[in-house]
Amino acid sequence: MQKPAEGHNSYRVPMARVCARLEAAGIDLGSCRALEFFAREGDWHTTTYASKVAELDAWEIDPSCEAALRKNLPDACIRIGDSFEFATQREFASQFDLIVYDNPQMFFGSCNQYCEHFEALSTLPNLMKPQAAVVFNVNRKPFDYDKWPRWQARRRQFYECPDAAQLTPEFVMDFYGWHFNRLGLTTRLAFLEPRHLSHVDYFFARLEKKGTAGIRASRAPERLQGRPDFRATNPKNSR
Ligand SMILES: C[S@@+](CC[C@H](N)C(=O)[O-])C[C@H]1O[C@@H](n2cnc3c(N)ncnc32)[C@H](O)[C@@H]1O
Description:
The chain is α/β, with parallel strands linked by helices. The chain contains eight helices and nine strands.
């Protein structure tokens, strides 16, 4: 994602809206242990919620970010290294109430082995407490998409649809409900919040590991169990 202009707060406002919606939904950020999985220097959006949560862990692979990250998030527990490796460590198993994947766009990793949040989401079942919330970026309409055939192919494969150039909010909501189900997680609440140039949204979901006893009375009904029908929710692609 491009760095915003100096002094520009357009990155912080959408996260402030996400926090307001979480609080309105009865999620007590003040009791959360949160993880920023892709932390960079923390000042694009992490600083927006850092003071609201009880504890914050921030992980970043690039050592050149460390000094600024410590300065921007003075109370956070910061680790410099590969978040995918940290996520396999026992000390982090079932530790977090809120996990934020501010994923890079397109491909990344030493061998370009990762794409968007597609692989990162698989770390969720290990990192989250039996009930937890997740926030990540969904690129519903990638910019300059025609130039990147490999990205197009990876997105088609992940979303299991014939064309992932433009994803409707309905498809996205259904797809992730289905995807979390595949990861062994039940979705209790989910919403999209516009983030960047109308292409990238925050996806928020409150999740529960299957088989976990929860507060049944306050549960929203499960929206989806079956695989989403791409054509039904993407009129452009209906044939
Ligand atoms: C979009 S930026 C994150 C911005 C940040 N959340 C903020 O509030 O300022 C994505 C970051 O992910 C980092 N990253 C990429 N691969 C990583 C990995 N395997 N482990 C940890 N961090 C990684 C990149 O170095 C980059 O700093």
